[in-house]
Design brief:
Elements: E1 2-4, E2 10-12, H1 13-40, H2 43-69, H3 74-88, H4 93-108, H5 118-135, H6 138-142, H7 144-151, H8 157-167, H9 170-199
Antiparallel strand pairs: 1-2
Helix pairs in contact: 1-2, 1-3, 2-5, 2-8, 2-9, 3-4, 4-5, 5-9
């Protein structure tokens, strides 16, 4: 089984299995982070920081995964997994967002051995999570009334107003994007330190 990608590099069955295992682990981390943030933080802090915290804790796994596979298609597969998870949680529209995010990141990674290049890979990682954060605002910018109606009783009126304030305004979305990018960058830097000190020395990737 092969999935053709850019150039001569192709994702093979072994790569698909590797990507699947690591992405499932990252999805578990994402769910745990979101649950903890929802319980422990105020709605404001949750909306501002949860994507960035996800990015921070997922970074070490992503770095090992992308260096083990090191082929075009890695970001796309990662985005598809994330979109499927969101669809399972009732936000099927986010699958289309993540597909677009994956394709944009793959364009950023065009070239030879870009996933092995820490700078290129780091830029791709930061862009991935920034776009992920901004993608959450799409319903409130393009079909606000229908989206709020679809929430039903799952949000109080006060909760809906907080949601609108953070995901329906450009200033807050810019702030969320900056926080997410910063935490993704820090997470990637910490992950690279771990990768070089332990994974590369042990020749595991």
């Amino acid at each position: 089984m092969e999935v053709k990608t850019d150039g001569s590099a192709r994702l093979r069955l072994k790569d698909i299995i590797t990507l699947s295992i690591f992405n499932i682990a990252m999805l578990v981390i994402m769910v745990i982070v979101k649950m903890v943030m929802t319980i422990a933080a105020t709605p404001a802090l949750d909306y501002l920081f949860y994507v960035g915290v996800m990015a921070f804790f997922c970074a070490p796994l992503y770095i090992v995964m992308s260096n083990k596979t090191a082929k075009h298609g890695t970001f796309l597969v990662t985005a598809i997994f994330c979109g499927l998870m969101m669809a399972a949680f009732g936000s099927a529209w986010f699958s289309a967002v993540m597909l677009a995010v994956g394709l944009i990141c793959e364009l950023l990674m065009l070239g030879n051995n870009t996933y092995k290049n820490p700078v290129r890979n780091g830029i791709g990682y930061v862009v991935y999570w920034t776009l992920y954060a901004w993608g959450s605002s799409i319903p409130l910018f393009f079909f606000k009334e229908r989206y709020l109606k679809s929430l039903g009783d799952s949000y109080t009126e006060e909760g809906k107003q907080v949601l609108i304030r953070f995901y329906g305004s450009l200033d807050m979305m810019l702030l969320i994007g900056l926080i997410s990018a910063a935490l993704a960058a820090v997470g990637f830097w910490v992950g690279m330190l771990f990768f070089k000190k332990h994974i590369q020395k042990a020749k595991l990737a």
